[in-house]
Request: fold
Amino acid sequence: MQQMSFLDDSPPHTITNVATVPQRSPFRYPGGKTWLVPRIRQWLAHRTTRPEVFVEPFAGGGIVSLTVGFEQLADHVIMVEVDAQVAAVWKTILGDGAARDWLTERIATFDLTPEAVADVLAQPAMEIKEQAFRTILKNRVNRGGIMAAGAGKVKQGENGKGLRSRWYPATLCRRIQAIGSIRERFTFIEGDGMDVLRRYADQSGVVCFLDPPYTAAGKKAGARLYTHANLDHPQLFHLAGSLANDFMMTYDNTTEIHALAQMHGFDTQPVAMKNTHHAAMTELIIGRCLDWLR
Reply:
């Protein structure tokens, strides 16, 4: 079995201290999975072989894919995102160096004032790299990193810094350039994650991490947090059951989701975490066999 650094075999009721997890994404993402990183390492470490391809069809802020890529937990990582705003960021970071350098220079030199922010966010359709900058800016100045229509901006922020409270230009630039330095480990696809899952369903050496927007069982959070929140959850469970190889899903810990998992013969395990308001709660990990997690 492969040897991996950072392995955490703590029980599922132990809440991850996210300060111990490397922060690699340029996004502040609602529903982000930094807390899950030790479980991802644990899952992949307990496999007898390293995956040839790691697929994340609902990438969002990408912390799981980035962890797998940086720590070389798979030979190659495929990130998929349907949201054009988010896709512009990943295309720019994982694309040619000139666009990435432009983005980091724009971030480093941007004078963040309410007027400057309003001017950028009011701009019409633009080049992908410009859209990437606008997306990162919106993600940083909106409350909770929410980019869906109607999201409000940070007001007081940390220590009364207002809009600047989540704007760390040097940190953002370092993260972007670090991702760019290993871009050959990634493929980014702008498109429907379900379609990509179907494409890889029968391929050997593939593992999938499925973290869809949480809109099942009448949940409204997904619709409020994400631009693209509509998803056929029963169809996703059916598709997961058809995958030839291993997968992990994360979902809200609800009766309806337990029922869907049971219907398809999947194993479930609640895992402790804290939400963005630092309240202790659980999310549900779903897979074919979760003995490694107990």
